[in-house]
Amino acid sequence: MIVSNLSTLATLEPKLRALLPAQLYVGIWVNPQNELLLEVVGHLQTLRYLLSDSVPRQVVSNPPLPGKLRYHWEEGTLLFTDLAGFTPLMEANTAQGSEGAKELLSILSGYFAAMIDVVVKSGGDLLEFTGDALLVQFPQESDNGDVGRAIRAGLRMQRAMGDFAHIQTAQGRLSLAMRVGIHRGRFLAVDLGTPSRMMRVLLGETVKRAKQAEGAGQVGAVCLTEEVIQLLGGVFAVEPGKLGYGLVVDNLSDRRLGEYDITLNKRRRVSSALWFDRSDRALLDKIESLVQELEPLASYLPQAVLKLVVENAAQRSIPPTFSPCVVMFVNLSGLSEFIDQVQPEQEAAVVAQCNYLFSVINGMVTAVGGVMKNPTYHLEGSVVVIYWGGIDTHTDDASRAARVALELREVVQQSWLNQMAKGAIACQIGIAQGVVFAAEVGEPRGRREFNVLGDVVNTAARLMTKAQPGQILFTQTLYESLRQQSTTSTQSFRYEFMGEIPLKGKRQLFPVYELQSTTPPKGDGSSQLNGH
After folding, report:
1. What stretch of H or E contains 29?
2. pLDDT band with cut points at 50, 70 and 90 for residue 380
3. Distance in angstroms (rounded) separating the CA atoms of residues 130 and 329
4. Using 50, 70 and 90 to split pLDDT, how confident is the model at 8?
5. Which pLDDT score, from 0 to 100, does residue 253 have?
6. N or C end of the chain: smaller count of CB under 10 Å?
């Protein structure tokens, strides 16, 4: 019977390889008897719950075949949030090591659980976590009811922040606060990628405008674009904000704000009906069925993150850590504007080229041990966040990041997508190095994602905004690492010190370098990271 079991498992082996923890994977090949088959079934059922909580609801309810491209235009209201006060909170807990990481995760979990609860009960769909931020969609309603839902959700979320205004830490009392931005319009929802890595991406100016509304807002307020204000019809009071934006006046009593719009289960749960047939044949059939269900969900996680989830499935959580990390922010400037200008007859070709470009970038990053997060939006436009460390740390992560940045810039510049856009798409890249908080953020038993957070992430993002199209800026810390690594490597980099510049959130001027190439022209006298 063992031989027969091995024969059946062999057909599933390429897929099981990524879905089983190392010890269990080895066990079923050494001794594929009934007890171990039953253990595999239990693990895969647990993994099904975990992965269902790690991807957007739209993917869970209607997963595409891995590697199959699909897209459609949607309309509705988008709500972006951003958390203020996280960096001091992280610094207050870093010195406490693993216990500090657990305490920090507990605070964040309470915050996300409260916000997600409001979102779900207000009729919103949580699309993604962007660090400590959230992107929420309120599907279009014929009477613009989606706008009202979004605004009421934003007000409720801001009221719920009162629970996080006084957080006691070893360094004294700290607080968390939040900005909320709302915009309404049409955007392109795309599922793209390869069988090993799928991504759900929203493209277009509407998403960018929603993010900019959050950036233009104030802590504690809900900020609206002018287009949204024009749709309100006087239902909500709005005071002037920055040019082109308004702030909702929260002068509503609890009664006027009303009960939640709807009540939904937090997530659609997979049936947990008891299953009694434990024969080898039935177990093998069950394993095959579970693998088919898991394959599309698993493809939406970066391979390194999927491995973490799989190895920690029995505990149903990934231990949080403070970890050294190199973080890269890449803004594909011009992409969102180009998407909105595409004619219907060009859509399929443009989406296919987006698919190719994002898949190539992910392949480049994965090949050198990095993690590419799902493309998202920043104030500047479409952004790709990449990191080394946080999960697997290498002694030459700085060099890996520098090589990818240079190659990525060339790939974007030479891409067919950029040619279709007549050269309007360019990279702005910022790279920073330091300690991050690496953890599964979100609801402890609900929607959550693995993320890296902290000042290093913020610094990389701010350097990206300072970069000109085609420019790669990096920090003094990364410069020092590149110099140290160049003594044991044949890899050299050409760079230029750009001086000290002001960065948002930094009290002092910040030293910045520009990465230019891997091999400087002979005899040009340029500074190199392998010596001067």
Report:
1. helix 22-30
2. confident
3. 12
4. confident
5. 75
6. C
Mean pLDDT confidence for 192-215 = 93
Residue 247, pLDDT score? 97
As given in the structure block, the two tokens for residue 491 are 């890899």
Give the H or E element holding residue 356.
Answer: helix 347-367
Q: What is the DSSP string of 90-151?
A: HHHHHTTHHHHHHHHHHHHHHHHHHHHHHHHHTT-EEEEEETTEEEEEEE--TTSHHHHHHH
Lookup result for tokens 């940045």 = 405
The CA-CA-CA angle for residues 455, 457, 458, to 5°, reads 60
Residue with tokens 């698993």: 298
The secondary structure of residue 276, as a DSSP letter, is -
Between CA 509 and CA 466 the distance in angstroms is 13
Q: What is the residue type of 291?
A: V
- Phi and psi torsions of 458, nearest 5°: -65, -40
* CA–CA gap between residue 149 and residue 121 (Å, rounded): 10
Beta carbons within 10 angstroms of residue 4's beta carbon: 12
> Residue 59 to residues 140, 186, 295: CA-CA distances in angstroms?
19, 20, 12
Question: In the beta sheet, which residues pair with residue 84?
Answer: 177
Burial class (CB in 10 A: 0-12, 13-18, 19+), 79: buried
**Which one has a higher pLDDT value, 150 or 255?**
150
User: Cα angle at 457 between 384 and 209, to 5 degrees?
Assistant: 50
What CA–CA distance (Å, rounded) separates 457 from 460? 5
Surface-to-core class of residue 136, CB atoms within 10 Å of its CB (0-12 exposed, 13-18 middle, 19+ buried) = buried
Q: Which residues, 6+ apart, have CB-to-CB distance to 487 below 8 Å? A: 530
Rounded CA-CA distance 218/195 in Å is 42
Tokens matching residue 323: 């970890």
Residue predicted with more confidence, 363 or 378: 363
Segment 139-183, tens digit of pLDDT: 999 888 999 999 999 999 999 999 999 998 877 899 999 999 999
Report the alpha-carbon distance of residue 117 to residue 260 in Å, rounded: 10
More confident residue, 121 or 487: 121
For residue 529, the model assigns a pLDDT of: 56
Count of other CB atoms within 10 angstroms of residue 429? 27
Distance of CA 440 to CAs 132, 309, 318, 320, 458, Å? Answer: 11, 10, 6, 7, 18
Averaged pLDDT of the chain: 89
pLDDT of residue 3: 55
